[in-house]
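quick one before i forget lol
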Amino acid sequence: MGRLTSMHWKPTWEESSVLVRQSMNRAPFNRAKVSVATAAALFGIAIAGCSGSFAETNPEQVAAATPPPAIATASPRNIAAALPDFASLVEHYGAAVVNVAVVGKTQQVSEVPGVSPNDPFYDFFRRFGQPGQRGGQAQPQRGEGSGFIVSADGYILTNAHVVENADEVTVKTTDRREYTAKVVGSDAATDVAVLKIDAKNLPTVKIGDASKLRPGEWVIAIGSPFGFENSVTAGIVSATSRSMPGSNYAPFIQTDVAVNPGNSGGPLFNLNGEVVGINSQIYSRNGGYMGLSFAIPIDVASNVQQQLVSNGRVTRSRIGVSIQDVNAQLAESFGLDRPKGALVGMVEDDGPGAKAGIKAGDVILKVDGTEIETSSQLPGLIASKKPGSSVDLDVWREGGIKRLSAKPVEIVEKGTKVANRESAEADETAKLGLVVRPLQKQEKAQVETDGDLVVEDSDGPAAAAGVQRGDIILGVNGRPVKSLDDLKVAARKTKGKIVALLIERDSAQIFVPVRIG
């Protein structure tokens, strides 16, 4: 909690003395100026009354006697009229912003200060350490964030990281009513979560169009920074369609609105009172606001909300290509008039892109008529398409544009609720906490491996054992694996609770014991 410091300034005795002396010294000088000005005016009148050309030959004296023109100043009322009316906006829509308090899963406190319970020497120190080190108890994790009501019957949008691992979620409204909330669903890939409270006739926000935002446009945030509920901050849109590390499906809105811990999940309003984003991240070197804040576009959040409420899961699509940005040099080499689009570096064998005719070196310029300025836009656009639907692609190849049609397939992302993982084979591999896929021929040649399966993601037991994204699985319990079926069979035949994975990482082969169950 920061220290509040008074900004009201009072002069010291010495400073007051200086001010008084300056005031006393100025008075005679001002009177002297008036006397000189009066004399000059009288002298000017006398000269003007004389015949001859004396006055004409001394225009400087005439100009000096002429008072300067008055400088037009804006009245306080005019200045206020020129500024945005934030107060009315907050008055109309602030009631739909809520505080979200979370009690998470308990965390065990070490009985040996400074030593983790997972440390191999923890038990030794616990038993034979100095007295007074015992008595560790599990402590609940507590956190706070923000949210906003999107339907009168109690649906609320917030960030997924606000309610991650939550055991209890409490929503507090501006009139100090409190509700126990249910987490309908969350999507880590976009950092969006949907809550539900048992209430009716609640105030709601208006949903806007984030695609119409322009840099320089006024926006405001309402939230609970550091627990200060319903705090209002204002600023402008700094940029749109920003790509952030770890976020492939949300073209973030960058603003200079002051956002701090506790603002997460709160709304970003435009001056029409419409929500255009969910405040989600800040860029900071000290953990606090430094002028860079980022919001998830509301259209992305609304799409996730609709899927979570309707299906309990979020589906996304891919076309099986790797892409990169087009810089000035690449644009010139490919014959483009300027840098734009997404350059295809690799096409997955038998994937939707390959079947559509996409080749390495193609530059994807449009998806269903939407122009691609940077490569970061493409994954989100493709992901929003329904798996199996037809998607029109405009690609630049050999100096001309070709129109291709692709049918994307569904992908699975970490943190998304799914009923059936086709690509990840959810049963036995899910017990290990692994999401794997077959290696493509180009990938095998690039890393020079004999393996056939690569880890797309790891969590649970596999992550705890140290298995990482990009590891190549060679065998399980001494049995070589060449396919997903091989991995499933090997995992199923495991006796006991330890699975020994043989993986390849950085051209080295190591065994990793994974504890399951």
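fyi Residues 1-57, 130-135, 413-427 have pLDDT under 50 and may be disordered.
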